[in-house]
Amino acid sequence: MPRPSDELDRYDLTCQRLREALLGQLPASVDLAATVTAHAYWACVAVSRDGTDWEQALRDYTILAQQQAVAESEAERREIALLRRELAQTRGPVLDVGAGWGRLVPLYAGLNRPAVYVEPATLGVQLMRRSGLNRVVQSGGETLPLADSAFAVAVIGWVLHHHAAPDVDAPAILAQAARVLAPGGQLLSIEPLGENFCQTEWTSLLSEAGFHINRVEWFFTSEPASGKTERYTLAVGTRGVD
Ligand SMILES: C[S@@+](CC[C@H](N)C(=O)[O-])C[C@H]1O[C@@H](n2cnc3c(N)ncnc32)[C@H](O)[C@@H]1O
Predict the structure, then answer these.
(1) Is the CB of residue 157 less than 8 Å from the CB of residue 104?
(2) Does the beta carbon of 210 lie inside 6 Å of ligand 1?
(3) Is 115 in the pocket of ligand 1 (CB under 6 A)?
(4) Atom of ligand 1 nearest to the CA of 156
(5) In this predicted model, what pLDDT tens digit does every residue of 130-189 receive, in sequence order?
(6) Which of 45, 132, 148, 241 sits 20 to 30 Å CA-CA off 126?
(7) Is the CB of 158 under 6 A from ligand 1?
(8) So what's the pLDDT on residue 164?
């Protein structure tokens, strides 16, 4: 099997191979397309960012999908319900920082909310643009090329817990989110809390960036085969008034 070199070609082939491996293996409650998309993205990020061998990444993420798709699908259902509830209480365009492949696009579209998607990874940006989105900005959250006070709501999901990685400066990302949010604007932050990232660390980061934390809400506990339990949690913060 030839190994594709272009990121989009590699992603498409990864999707195809994952779909073949998972077809008929998952219960009807699981959205096969969503499972394939997510695991193909993560597998390709492992190849391009970490230098993982593509066949190896494909094997690893096929096994992960087989083991975790049911739990992940339920976690996502609860996450989307919470985000929908919170977004319904806000107005105006949404800023999604670290938007990945655009997983939340259907949520914003369903609420009739325009959104700006910020994502540093070329694959994520290419996938969002290929799906027809035009407000996609290729950037890390640390340097948002967006005007001050331009948004009333920002979503940062599953990004800050990577704060130990050299390419994720969580205080800088949050400082930028605070800058582009209008005073009183809402931050919806979703992270998995566990051994590597605890609630105190998270809420301190939010407070230090000037957010008043209104609510911290657990919505799912993951129990992966690795044994590292994580509590998937939403924090709702309000950007303080200058
Ligand atoms: C686990 S994915 C989550 C994607 C999306 N937020 C979601 O909920 O589906 C984390 C994303 O954060 C992006 N990311 C990595 N470093 C970042 C940074 N410094 N600023 C913003 N996003 C970053 C990654 O490229 C990846 O797409």
Answers:
(1) yes
(2) no
(3) no
(4) 6
(5) 999 999 999 999 999 999 999 999 999 999 999 888 889 999 999 999 999 999 999 999
(6) 148
(7) yes
(8) 85
